[in-house]
C-alpha cells in the first residue's frame, strides 16, 4: 500500500526522532590518508608504544579495527597526538599487511594462536649448553615454527665455558642451520657480540629461548646501554630460569643496522597451528620427492615416496631423518 503520493516532499516523510541528540551512525569510515607511519615496539595491557620517525608515541587501537590486535613488529598507521609527550595518546587506525607472522600455541592441543612477533626476518633460537641443560625438543619446535612462518633460523649457543657445543651441533648439522657459539668471557670482551651482530645486520631478528639461557644478557650486549633490560639468574633448586622479560620488545641495533626483538622466556612451544606441508618447504632437496606421496601424507609412513627418493641418491638420508624428527615434535613434549 502506497503511503505517499507521486510528488513527495522531504517534509512529508516521517523521521524517527534521535533521542540522544547526536548524529546517526554511519558505516562509512574515514580513510585516514594523512596518518603517520609507525612501528609497534612494545605492547603493555592494551597500550602500544610505536616508533614514529625518531620518537616514541603512545597509542591505543581504534575501535574500528575490531578484534584485530597489533603486535610487536607491526607496521601501523597512526593519527592524533604524535608528539610523544607525557600523558598524550594517539590512535592506531590501520595495521599494514604483514610479511611474516611467528605464532605459537600454549600446547599442541590448544587451538588458540599467540602471535609472538610480526614482520621478522629471522628467528634466533638461544640455548644454553649448561645451567640450564639444553632442551633439543624445544629447539626442534622453534625450528618448525620458524620454517612455518618463513623465517630464517639462527642457532645461538651460550655458556660454552661450561660445556662443549660439539654434540648439539652434530645433531643439527644435516639441517644446515647457521649458528654462533658464545661464552661469558667472550660476551664481556665483546668478541662474541661482534660474531652475533654479523648475523643480524639489516634484519629484524626475534630472540626466543627457555628462561635462564642468557637471552636477555645477549640482547643487552648487542644494544646501546640506555635500551638494556634487567636480567635474572637460574634457580638453584629447579634448574630453571626466572622470567625477567615479561613482554616482547623491539630494540634497534646501533647505527640503525637492524632490530632485535627480545621475547619472554618460554617453557613450551605448541605447534597446533602448523601445517606439515609448509615445514617440508624448508627442505628444497626433498620437495620434489613428495610429488609421489599419497594424499595427506605425513611423510613418516610406509607409502611415503621420500624413502624411495632418498634411496635413489637424490638427497642425504640425514636430511630425511631431520625432517621426520621435526615433524614428529607435535607428538612429543619438550621435556621428552
Structural features, described:
The chain is α/β, with parallel strands linked by helices and 336 residues long. The chain is 20% helix and 22% strand. It has a 6-stranded mixed beta sheet, sandwiched between helices. A 5-stranded mixed β-barrel has the order 1-2-3-5-4. The chain has a two-stranded antiparallel sheet with strand order 6-7. The longest helix is centred in the middle third of the chain and has 14 residues, at 136-149. The chain is globular and about 80 Å long. The N and C termini lie far apart (76 Å).
Give helix % range. Answer: 10-25%
Low-confidence stretches: 230-243
Let me know the number of strands: 13
In whole angstroms, how far apart are the ends? 76 Å
Series of H and E elements: EEEEEEEEHEHEHHEHEEHHH
Total of helices:
8
Into which percentage range does the β-strand content fall? 15-25%
What order do the strands of the largest sheet run in, or round the barrel if closed?
Answer: 10-9-8-11-13-12
As a whole number of angstroms, the C-alpha radius of gyration is 25 Å
Largest sheet: 6 strands, mixed
Give the overall average pLDDT: 84
Structural class: alpha/beta
Shape: globular
Amino acid at each position: 500500500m502506497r503511503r505517499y503520493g507521486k510528488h513527495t516532499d522531504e517534509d512529508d516523510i516521517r523521521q524517527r526522532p534521535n533521542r540522544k541528540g547526536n548524529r546517526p551512525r554511519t558505516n562509512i569510515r574515514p580513510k585516514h590518508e594523512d596518518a603517520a607511519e609507525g612501528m609497534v615496539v612494545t605492547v603493555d595491557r592494551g597500550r602500544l608504544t610505536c616508533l614514529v620517525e625518531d620518537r616514541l608515541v603512545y597509542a591505543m587501537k581504534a575501535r574500528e579495527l575490531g578484534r584485530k590486535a597489533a603486535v610487536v613488529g607491526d607496521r601501523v598507521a597512526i593519527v592524533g597526538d604524535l608528539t610523544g609527550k607525557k600523558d598524550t595518546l594517539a590512535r592506531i587506525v590501520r595495521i599494514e599487511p604483514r610479511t611474516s607472522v611467528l605464532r605459537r600455541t600454549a600446547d599442541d592441543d590448544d587451538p588458540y594462536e599467540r602471535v609472538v612477533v610480526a614482520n621478522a626476518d629471522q628467528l634466533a633460537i638461544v640455548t644454553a649448553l649448561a645451567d640450564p641443560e639444553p632442551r633439543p625438543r624445544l629447539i626442534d619446535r622453534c625450528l618448525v615454527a620458524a620454517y612455518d612462518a618463513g623465517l630464517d633460523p639462527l642457532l645461538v649457543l651460550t655458556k660454552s665455558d661450561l660445556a662443549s657445543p660439539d654434540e648439539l651441533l652434530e645433531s643439527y648439522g644435516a639441517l644446515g642451520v647457521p649458528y654462533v657459539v658464545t661464552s661469558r668471557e667472550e660476551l664481556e670482551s665483546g668478541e662474541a657480540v661482534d660474531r652475533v651482530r654479523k648475523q643480524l645486520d639489516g634484519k629484524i631478528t626475534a630472540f626466543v629461548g627457555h628462561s635462564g639461557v642468557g637471552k636477555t644478557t645477549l640482547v643487552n650486549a648487542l644494544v646501546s646501554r640506555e635500551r638494556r633490560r634487567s636480567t635474572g639468574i637460574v634457580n638453584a633448586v629447579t634448574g630453571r630460569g626466572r622470567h625477567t622479560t615479561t613482554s616482547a620488545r623491539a630494540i634497534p641495533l646501533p647505527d640503525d643496522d637492524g632490530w632485535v626483538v627480545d621475547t619472554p622466556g618460554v617453557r613450551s612451544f605448541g605447534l597446533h597451528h602448523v601445517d606439515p606441508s609448509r615445514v617440508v618447504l624448508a627442505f628444497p632437496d626433498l620437495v620434489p620427492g613428495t610429488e609421489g606421496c599419497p594424499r595427506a601424507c605425513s611423510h613418516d609412513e610406509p607409502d611415503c615416496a621420500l624413502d624411495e627418493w632418498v634411496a635413489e641418491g637424490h638427497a642425504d638420508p640425514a636430511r630425511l631423518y631431520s625432517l621426520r624428527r621435526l615433524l614428529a615434535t607435535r607428538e612429543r613434549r619438550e621435556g621428552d
